[in-house]
Amino acid sequence: MDRVLADILRDQRNLGNKSDGSWKSIAYNNAASALSSQFNVSILGDNVKSRVKIWKKWYGIVHDILSQSGFNWDGTTCMITVDNESAWNDYVKSHPDAKCFRFKVIPNWDDIVDLCAKDRATGHGAETAMDANEHFNVEQNDGKSSEECETDSPSDFQGLEELNIESQNGASPSHCPQKKRGQSTTSSIAPSKRKRMGRNDELAIAMGKIANSFTEFIRTSEKKIDVKEVMDELNMISDFDRQQRLKALKWLTENETQFYVVKNLPLDEKKDYIMMFMP
């Protein structure tokens, strides 16, 4: 979906819907409409705007990494390369936000450069202090290893991957409220009841709704799973270590049903589901 969004935004830029380094609201709304139609999901302009903010954040961090001697970009693996691990360790001590990107795969990096580089160079579209605080608000994570990424929390990714999926009966949400931490964007459970429910209960309910919506599609679909599409999905889960990511990649590319379930779960439940059911 990221690659399609990038193409749509380039078209919007060519139409003049980006001026003075800033995207116009019509660009976000047109992109949301095109994605909703193409992928048969419900996307709002705010979802697209959030995704672009994430790209700008990634670009700023990775650009600064690559400006240092000994750090380069591998266009084949879509990852940064490090000539000297000691130099990298020294760098992340003073730039902790970079730690997460040591083994992060960014398949659409060329698109991000194309769409975000000029903005940063001219200062247009830069994050305000309030934006930065919002994007770097990290959850407490019990038992998290110091080797795990602590840069991106699930709240960083309240964008295209957290969508209200329309049910097969044609019902469409009238609005898409900002998701509060720990709540599912697809759940219709009253807040008081949700508080009494455990995480596994919420996950089971979300899975049931997704299963009802996609059972027919999964049964009739003959399309093979695109490995890059699976990688894009896993890249949304920022606190996977390398071994977990590779294991999940193999499992999801071999299990079409599991991949479509993971793809349509809220972002903060994707890892829980994978770790619960992955062999």
UniProtKB/TrEMBL annotation:
Mind telling me which InterPro entries this protein's record contains? Answer: Myb/SANT-like_dom (IPR024752)
- List every stretch annotated Disordered: 167-198
Query: Which Pfam families does this chain map to?
Result: Myb_DNA-bind_3
Residue ranges of every copy of the Myb/SANT-like domain listed in the record? 1-91
Q: Which domain of life is it from?
A: Eukaryota
Name listed for the protein in its UniProt record = Myb/SANT-like domain-containing protein
